[in-house]
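Hi P.,

Sorry for the delay on this. The queue was packed all week, but I finally got your sequence through. Input first:
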Amino acid sequence: MSVKLPPLREVIARHGLAASKALGQNFLLDGQLLDRIAAIPGNLTGEQVYEVGPGPGGLTRALLRAGAHVTAVERDHRCLPALAELGEAFPGKLSVIEDDALTIDLARILPEGGHIASNLPYNVGTALLVDWLTGVEWPPRWRSLTLMFQREVADRIVATPGTSAYGRLSVLAQWRTTARLALPVHRSAFTPPPKVMSAVVHIVPKDAPTGVTPSAMEKLTGAAFGQRRKMLRQSLKPLSGALDALESCGINGERRAETLSVEEFVALARAFGA
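Then the structure:
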């Protein structure tokens, strides 16, 4: 859909939208880069997309250009007039909710399912991801997640066992999804530039292993990685039933959490059962 829009820098200047450090904001202004991010989920024509923290609407306009129907949640009231203008340019395609994304019920946003695509505010990104990954409902309402993170967080999401980045977030992300690093993004692409590099991660749900609950996986990974470099028999000891599960799976208690594969964590969670 070809709609003539003013440059983002002009929108930001006109509405006085200096990025707020308190809200973890860093704005992306490069239209070509934003279009590349919007293309990662695939064809979005007619698809429902949920966006968290649209700010002045950079990614929002790219998603709308890609044909999506976007529901955006923004807690910074300063951004609402700019988003309203964008809604006028794409009639009936953009809904904006002024709220805190951490309190939003996904069923309200995506009642029929859809995609989530966001340049996530850095201060809430990991918390939102864990919430979306650990829902009881599976398959989830989201068919894909296309999310911008600090590069260090993105590396943790897709990390493999035995690497320095591998940890609790890696297991929570991978035990019932396929996660990949889709696009590295240089710090200079943002306004203001953050101190670190970023990357877009693309996550797609897959069939959940039978007999494993998100609660069990959260408890086990929390305990196992809570004291890195400790042997499993020490880190899991405070968790009732975990050592029995370890033994029943034939996993050596002298191993450390970062050496276990995602499949071994799945077996452990199945035996743990809580």
